[in-house]
């Protein structure tokens, strides 16, 4: 593939993404294709080989009596999308967006989502242990650290209201006030912090091992096989025709695990799921074993809009992403773009001396940036992913739009989706949060809560001083 988008159009995956720390070394399944030619027909086509696509195939085959043939089609190397380019943080939201979600969807739906997210930490752990996956998985406490005094006060007040209201289970969340926040978190200038159970891991290592297991169970994988379209109607046998760069494949069931690229194949979703570009970095110290060790993962919140995410790696190095202060005032640099084949140049130097600037005890650490990369998220217009059977397209399913927050939402979503695809389980009995269900009303609304939320920033076009 060239540096441009695939020939299909504006929001298809681009060729030659900048290498991420996680995918820097070649892997045996890069370039892998199970057979030279695509099979002309198959029972289930899955488009996309990130955690959504691979997780769905994995869960489909958890029922060993299920004998369907499955092909995973991937435009680039396996797991070269967001799952291979993210922060590696499984950070369930216990309280931050709960008031917003309760306001939009009601308290019960907000609580259901918070519990679903919390259960992911142990769901990922169970998967890693059950399958013996070597992917640097670690359980940790995530610290959300607030640096702006007004924002810290507001968040504390809304946390206290949540405690009083008893909407969500906050047993695992611990609050530290200003007087101890800097010492407890290690973050300079901390005004308060919250901690709760989370995890971190090497996502693409996990996915490549799962893929290898699936290949051993006769799942077919076709990398570098972009899908350009799916027929508008099924044939007389109820099969959809999937057109790829390597020819056609017919299948009665098609699953779109296509994240921010979904609108390219399903134009009806192009307002509902928008590609958003993020930036991330890998930092390590020249002092090797003498580097101060971080035991927690972090969300560092500069104000209501700007925040970074950070995980320590077992080898002492650090992954930090965010840097919105440098480029979010300029919508064209991140909104609606799938260009992960280039950096956001104005944001790259943001990560220089990051640890020295923000963390106590790191001033003389010699910590330096090794790699910076970009990646494409799929932001949902109403903040919720779309999961389930696509309206008016029987046999076609979607699992996409996790709004930059997929690691505490996707794995169990793939389990629920697999039960719908394999056993015809209705969405309502699939174990998924009710607000994840894809519906005609959600897709056809002209309203985008996400855009309304971002609009003040675009209107002022002001660069953050942070
Ligand atoms: C920089 C960055 C940092 C992030 N950090 C975190 C984090 O720390 N924690 C967290 O929870 N979330 C994070 N996220 C979000 C998280 O990575 C995603 O929610 C999650 O990985 C989405 O998984 P997915 O399988 O849906 O999508 P992807 O991993 O993007 O997979 C979609 C795949 O579909 C393929 N595809 C698309 N269209 C086609 C087509 N037409 N033909 C063939 N193949 C196609 C793509 O090439 C891609 O491989 C981050 C994302 C980014 C970009």
Q: State the low-pLDDT regions, or none.
A: 1-8
CATH homologous superfamily assignment of one domain: D-Amino Acid Oxidase, subunit A, domain 2
Our measurement of the CA-to-CA distance between the termini, rounded to an integer number of angstroms, reads 38 Å
Identify the CATH architecture of one domain: 2-Layer Sandwich
**Helix content estimate:** 25-40%
Question: Largest sheet, if any?
Answer: 9 strands, mixed
The secondary structure category is: alpha/beta
**Proportion of beta-strand residues:** 15-25%
Mean pLDDT: 95
CATH class placement of one domain: Alpha Beta
Total strands: 18
Integer-rounded radius of gyration: 22 Å
**CATH topology term of one domain:** D-Amino Acid Oxidase, Chain A, domain 2
- Gross geometry: globular
GO cellular component, one term: cytoplasm
Pfam family, one: DAO
Protein name: FAD dependent oxidoreductase domain-containing protein
Description:
This protein has 466 residues and is of the alpha/beta class. It has a domain at 136-198 and 275-377: 2-Layer Sandwich (D-Amino Acid Oxidase, Chain A, domain 2), CATH 3.30.9.10. The chain is 28% helix and 22% strand. It contains 13 helices and 18 strands. The strands form three sheets. Strands 3, 4, 5, 6, 12, 13, 14, 15 and 16 form a nine-stranded mixed sheet that branches. Strands 7-2-1-11-18-17 form a six-stranded mixed sheet, with helices on one face. Helix 1 (51-60) packs parallel to helix 6 (203-216), helix 1 (51-60) packs across helix 11 (410-423) and helix 2 crosses helix 3. The longest helix has 25 residues, at 107-131. The radius of gyration is 22 Å and the shape is globular. Residues 1-8 have low confidence and may be disordered. The structure holds flavin-adenine dinucleotide (FAD). Flavin-adenine dinucleotide binds at residues 12-13, 47-53, 73-76, 80-83, 85-89, 226-227, 257-259, 261, 264-265, 278, 280, 309, 321, 375-377, 400, 402, 404-408, 410. Residues 43-415 form the FAD dependent oxidoreductase domain. This is FAD dependent oxidoreductase domain-containing protein. One of its GO terms (cellular component) is cytoplasm. Residues 1-26 are annotated as: Disordered.
